[in-house]
Amino acid sequence: MTTSSPGSRLVDAYDLVIFDLDGVIYLVDRPIETAVAAVGRLHAEGKPLAYATNNASRRPAAVAALLSGMGLAVQPHEVLTSAVAAAGLLANRFPADSPVLVVGAEALRAEVRAVGLRPVRRLEDEPVAVVQGYAPEVGWADLAEAALAVRAGAEWFATNTDRTLPTARGPVPGNGSLVAVLRTALERDPDVVVGKPEPALFTAAARQAGATRPLTVGDRLDTDIEGAVRAGLDSLLVLTGVTRPVDLLHAPLLARPTYVATDLGGLFDPAQVARLPGPAPEEAGSTASGPAATGSRVPGLPIVADNGWQVTANGETAQLTGSGSSLEALATLCAAAWSGRPVDSIEPGSDAARSALGDLDLLR
Questions:
Q1: Which residues are CB-contacts of 361 (< 8 A; sequence separation ≥ 6)?
Q2: Domain boundaries 83-192, corresponding CATH code
Q3: Each residue of 48-84: pLDDT tens digit?
Q4: Most buried among 78, 118, 160, 166, by the most CB within 10 A?
Q5: Looking at the record, which segments are called Disordered (predicted)?
Q6: Using one digit for the tens of pLDDT, what is the confidence trace for 134-150?
Q7: Residue 329 to residue 335: CA distance in whole angstroms
Q8: Does the active-site annotation cover 222?
Q9: Active-site choice (20, 142, 162, 219)
Q10: Helix axes of 175-186 and 140-151: crossing angle, nearest 10 degrees
Q11: Is the dihedral of CA 133, 134, 137, 141 positive or negative?
Q12: Where in the chain is CATH 3.30.300?
């Protein structure tokens, strides 16, 4: 994996930046101001960009138009959606004009139609496959037809399994929640899940751009970050969408980002981004990377990072002491949590620690 030098801009270490959209560039259809400014700056600098989204409710041209309306010069070919990827897989699997039962938005139906397959809505149309994507209008009748078709032998494709979608009012049910309805009714998993955390969207973006050092940027551990890890790519988690600092502390091994930043300003300003600890040698087969720390694998010894912070375990409680940026404090807490220290209860051991824990919403 690529690493950036201390004091250098994170973005300069990579030849392509692959963005998730909802929760990174915008919330629903409302632009995140810092993200728009950052992407505009990258465009002005000529940095190659791509947009990989699990959202199957818009076609690439519509996504590009939406982003252009926010002041970003995005071309349709830079956008990769799970709907396009799903339609491509279906076209490779079934003959032209095969009936496919589509559960989702008109955009998903259009992508299925564009690859020469025939979108249908009912079991009586004898679909060879069911493809399921998110749309606000999906209801019980749609799910019932899908369940009947799968029981009758149709292959089941899901564009993604995002449990929630970020909104300005908080997370709401996403396609993964709708997939869970069918999973419960059918007592089985989909035959194919297309979008993140599967690595296909990321590898396709890198291949299309001819990139050898891509950086992926997302707001979700279970899709964006896990997909990047599975694709062997570095990743930046931004805290503008679904994931909160407390979630990061409990991230499983395959969903741990390389960096964390409050927003996309971390691409440019070293003070606004923190590198997170890499896997332990026994987990990765190589030397662990991340905030330099001593005692990180010895029970009872504190995590002492070279960023000014220290975490000490005291029974079931962890104590944060020292000073520095809130993001570096989070990186040190991750080093403690990911090496088995208790982090469910964190106490401040200094005024700076109290302030940092407050910034991270970890002060109890």
A1: 244, 245, 246
A2: 3.40.50.1000
A3: 999 999 989 999 999 999 999 999 999 999 999 999 9
A4: 160
A5: 275-297
A6: 999 999 999 999 999 99
A7: 10
A8: no
A9: 20
A10: 50
A11: positive
A12: 277-359
